[in-house]
Amino acid sequence: MFKKNFFIAIIGLISLLVLSTSITVMAEPSAEFISTSNLTLSEFEALYPMSAEAEAAIVHVVPQVPVTINGVLYNPEDIKLFNGQRLHFTLDNEGNLYAFTSAKDLEKFINNEFGQSELINNNNGATRAAVALWEHITYLGDSISLSANEARASFGDFNDKASSFVVGQGLDSGVIWEHENFEGDSFTRPGGTAIPFLGLYGWNDIASSAARFD
């Protein structure tokens, strides 16, 4: 038990250090800049709808922890009951995993949980930290980051390689998607949060597109 608690404490310390340090990862240039300005998550996703066939083909990765879906708590393996339905994931203030079949329900949950206004881009021009993903756990290895108001439809060679995820202080939120072009499941975190190991939530080596809401 001591070793487990010590390991958790170390991971937490690393996350705090990452959040308190200016992220200097260079964002790879995109062929086309896609803006999230003045859009909520649900509004942004509506611009890139999945086909019925693509959604029906979704098979969720089983997380290592229980998940509350649309307000009902499920064992990890029961996520398979939702195969064929798109899920929008997040964590509460205590790190518990939640998912919703509606992006608007996800927004309501985050508003209530973190006391924020809706997930909307109101960039004031101030310098802000990045939305960034790393190849390995605890923010190690190769990495990519998004510039202000940017959505990245593909990570290119970095597709399906991310194992840790940070949304910097001062941002509204950061979102990653399972597939290119903002398709498949999504995972949203508010500003000032970090996930040192995405695999805990069934998201290791999965993300292939992302968006930053300033």
Give a written overview of the molecule:
- The protein has 214 residues and is α+β, with helices and mostly antiparallel strands.
- It has one domain: Crystallins (Gamma-B Crystallin, domain 1, Sandwich).
- Helices cover 20% and strands 28% of the residues.
- The chain has helices spanning 2-20, 41-46, 52-56, 103-114; strands at residues 34-35, 67-69, 72-74, 88-91, 97-100, 131-136, 140-146, 150-152, 164-167, 173-179, 183-190, 193-195, 209-213.
- The chain has a 9-stranded mixed sheet with strand order 1-8-13-10-11-4-5-2-3, with helices on one face. A 4-stranded antiparallel sheet has the order 7-6-9-12, covered by helices on one side.
- The longest helix is centred in the first third of the chain and has 19 residues, at 2-20.
- Mean pLDDT is 85; it is low at 2-10, 16-30 and 117-128.
Characterize this entry briefly:
By secondary structure, this protein is of the alpha+beta class. It has helices spanning 2-20, 41-46, 52-56, 103-114; strands at residues 34-35, 67-69, 72-74, 88-91, 97-100, 131-136, 140-146, 150-152, 164-167, 173-179, 183-190, 193-195, 209-213. The chain has a single domain, classed as Gamma-B Crystallin, domain 1.
